[in-house]
Amino acid sequence: MVERDDFEVRLRQARAREGLDRGPEKGGGLPKSPWGFGFRAGVEVVSALVVGVAIGFFLDRWLGTRPWLFLLFFVLGSAAGVMNVYRLFNPRNRATKTTD
Amino acid sequence: MAAEGNAIDALSQFELVPVLGAVGHAVGFTQSNMFMVFALGLTMALLVYGMRERAVVPGRLQSLAETSYEFLYGLVTDQVGDEGKRFFPFVFTLFMFVLFGNLLGMLPYAFTFTSHIAVTFALAAMVFVLITVVALMLHGTHFFSYFLPEGAPKALAPLIIVIEIISYLSRPISLSVRLFANMVAGHVMLKVFATFIVLMGSAGVIGVIGAAAPLAINVALIGFEFLVAFLQAYVFAMLTCIYLHDAVHLH
Question: What is the ipTM of this complex?
Answer without folding.
Answer: 0.77
